[in-house]
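Please check this today:
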Amino acid sequence: MGNIKPWEDLTIQDDYMFKLVMRRKHICKTMIEKILNIKLTDIRYIDEEKTVKPKYESKGVRLDVYVEGSGEIFEIEMQVRQPDSGELAKRVRYYQAMIDSEQLAAGQKYKALPTTYIIFICPFDPFGLSRHIYTFRNLCVEDTKMELDDKTTKVFVNSIGTADDVAPDVKAFLDYVNGVISDDAFVREIDNEIVRVKAIEEERVCYMTYEMKLEEERELAEEKGIEKGKIEIVREMLRTHQPLEFISEMTKFSSEKIAEIGKLHGLL
């Protein structure tokens, strides 16, 4: 439990709290409207913490906030870790592919694909131009006035931007992501909700249980990775005809396990 952030210290930047607060329909709907400068009649949660994975073996995508509104799909992520811009772009590309795969049932025509918006909220500048918001659509290289119109939009919101490119209420929300509380009504609503949620003992217990399970999964994955590496070492040492006793001493595997690995790979 040493790596688990205390419940009382969680902020909107923390993945668990972000998802919890965005389960409040009015807050989620208002945030989408403010960031995209649109109006929605209503939103519907497609699934809580939706995991999208195609039927073939592939990397699954765990979505933070996945909602539908007025026939459009909105997927929202709080992206705290800063990868390089190339990795972030390809992650969004993959998210789009998985969402499309999820939305298009077998036998449907491509025109059935809905309009989609993928929004990444970042406490860092993903493209280094000091903008608060970067909006991407598919444009023609030869004529940038021509849009492919595939009904997909990717938006990266940067909480540390300095450009004068968003409305004051959006700027207030981004300042809140950075820990600055203002008198903005929406910011106050979010902050009050976080305070209220933190006072609920059941929510704290759910958080601790969730984080402990994640930590166990991480430890198990690490152990599997270490064992896989040691198996490769055993294979290489067997190829070079090292004594079983020496291999056992180096890898801490038993002679029986080493022999099993050797036979499995045709080395003994």
The chain is about 45% helix and 15% strand. Residues 52-60 have pLDDT under 50 and may be disordered. The two ends are 43 Å apart (CA to CA). The chain has two domains: 7-199, 213-264.
